[in-house]
Write a structure and sequence with these properties.
Layout lengths: L16 E7 L5 H18 L4 E6 L28 E6 L3 H4 L2 H13 L2 E6 L1 H7 L7 E2 L6 H7 L4 E2 L4 E4 L2 E4 L2 H16 L1 H10 L25 H11 L8 H8 L3 H11 L4 H19 L4 H7 L5 H12 L3 H7 L1
Parallel strand pairs: 1-2, 1-3, 3-4, 4-8, 5-6
Antiparallel strand pairs: 7-8
Helix pairs in contact: 1-6, 1-7, 6-7, 8-9, 8-11, 9-10, 12-13
Length: 327
Amino acid sequence: MMKNEAASIFRPERDPLALTFLVFSGASIMCVASAVDPLRAANRIAGKTLFDWTIVSAGGEAPVTTCGLPVAVAGRFDPARRSDVLIVVGGFGTRLAATPGLIAGVRRAARQARAVGGIEAGSWLLGAAGLLEGRAATTHWEDLEDFSARFPGCEVRPDRYVIDGPVFTAGGASPTFDLMLHMVRSRLGMAVALDVASVFIYDQARAATDAQPLVSLGRLDGYDARVAQAIRLMESHVDRPLPVSALARRCGVSARRLETLFADAVGETPGAYYLRLRLAAARRLVLDTTEPMADIAARTGFSSASAFSRAFAAAFARAPSAMRGGR
């Protein structure tokens, strides 16, 4: 779909918008809710159906979300069924579910739609269908590096959500809520959007172009901004860990002071937290990719595969190879 083939849906318009949500097992229930519920609230506030959606799955069965809750669907995804907007909501395993037939179906449905969206791992299916070629897009921060390598023709951004003509993508549950609120605001006006936000007691404190954080700090900034700064430095240097002294220097404090700040705010030393952050990143790569252990070790800052394996086993009571084998 070329940039000039469909008018943007993010503009003032009060005609009903028909949306198809293609949901995959392994998606987050929060992503599904963040995509659908703001539209439900907008309809209620407007007093009429301005967003008319249908939820489907690839095979017609109820997709099971990561928390074990199934999502009721209207049936099987039908590429021939006309819809203004197709939104793919994906998660763990969506890449593996992208069969040639499904990819062709998404491509066909997108040609007929005014817009197409990818939520979290749903972006992978859009990319596989060739819908991101020459466009900007995002996906969940865990997958940005692999996503960029898989789709070199796409301008991959670490933003919370990206809108590029008729194609939009969001990196996770909270950015999806932001995106849907933006859709409501663009189409129905600020007053309706504020009422929708009030329904959920929601304060939108981030812009679309804000980078997705590796660590969601929540209210940690309220304790000491230098702790937040140190954590951001850690997450941007997972592959080549910075010494605590270097972290402290960049944060404008002594190493001893940084230790104290971390003890007060986080309850552990900067070194212990940094190691845990790197091991958490390694665990995701072990479970969600087929990368060799030596490559994972290098990507998470370990000097060798053996050193990585020892640290991993100490943290998770299982060797990385055993965890991957057992899933």
